[in-house]
Design goal:
- Helices cover 36% and strands 19% of the residues.
- It has helices at residues 28-43, 60-63, 71-95, 117-125, 143-153, 187-192, 200-209, 223-229, 253-256; strands at 8-13, 47-52, 100-104, 113-114, 129-133, 158-163, 180-182, 184-186, 213-217, 235-238, 249-251.
- Helix 1 (28-43) crosses helix 3.
- The longest helix has 25 residues, at 71-95.
């Protein structure tokens, strides 16, 4: 590939990205595919920090709905699930020859070092992938918000939001075969139209920090590399004050055909 467009990126991967559709836990083929893509990007000299979710094990908000388990407790359980995912991703990456560290916002020093900004930056500068676990370390905040926060702290050039669909749609593509996929959006339009690609706190923080967000399909092998190379895939969300609310939109391939 040509010269990478970005030198330091924050990659957000959901827990569901590590398993099959509607699955739970790990699917080693899925985990290895993602790890291999990350390792290939890191081998080019791109500094990669990964924020990982825990939804393949526990979603705090969902768990707390019954009322027996408090939301705070459920969220902490979800944070521990992200530590499990981070440990698994670390081992697979290192099996592929990619040096990796896990930094946790919760104190679990037996399995991960604490998140210390300067130390994480040093790892990145040394070419190590850093997997950031346990979200922000507090309940009621999503891992999407963590991703926006860490991207800001670590001065990442872009926040890559890895999903199971091709980008941001105007409606659910699983329910609406005529759903339209945007190629570009502004932060303001995401907030105004309540598009929910990320939670509102995450988008607001990215907007304030002026960090571009690229939403793309990680289930297509090679897409992480394509995004790093600057190929126009997925949906790019930026602070574009001169463009107002006008954005370009791309029809999904099924509509075009």
């Amino acid at each position: 590939m040509n010269e990478p467009r970005y030198r330091r990126v924050l990659l957000k991967i959901s827990g569901e990205g590590l398993c099959k559709e509607n699955g739970v836990g790990f699917d080693m083929a899925e985990l290895t595919t993602i790890a291999r893509q990350i390792a290939e990007v890191a081998a080019l000299g791109v500094q990669v920090a990964v924020v990982i979710g825990g939804g393949n094990f526990i979603r705090g908000e969902t768990l707390a709905k019954s009322g027996e388990i408090q939301r705070s407790t459920a969220d902490y359980m979800g944070m521990l699930a992200t530590v499990i995912n981070a440990m698994a991703l670390q081992d697979v990456l290192e099996h592929l020859g990619c040096p990796t560290r896990v930094a946790s916002a919760l104190n679990v020093i037996q399995v991960a070092e604490p998140f210390i900004r300067r130390k994480v930056l040093r790892h990145l500068e040394k070419g190590r992938v850093v997997v950031l676990a346990a979200g922000v370390g507090n309940p009621f905040f999503t891992t999407d918000t963590c991703a926006a926060l860490r991207a800001t702290e670590l001065q990442a050039e872009v926040l890559l939001k890895a999903t199971k669909v091709d980008g941001v749609y105007d409606s659910d593509p699983k329910k609406n075969p005529h759903a339209v996929c945007y190629s570009e959006l502004t932060y303001r339009q995401v907030l105004t139209d309540n598009l929910r690609v990320m939670d509102m706190t995450a988008i607001s923080l990215a907007m304030e920090s002026k960090i571009p967000v690229v939403v793309f399909n990680v289930k297509k092998p090679g897409n992480i590399m394509r995004v790093i190379a600057g190929e126009p895939i997925g949906t790019r969300i930026t602070y574009a004050p001169n463009h107002g609310q006008e954005v370009s939109r791309r029809l999904v391939a099924e509509r075009i055909s």
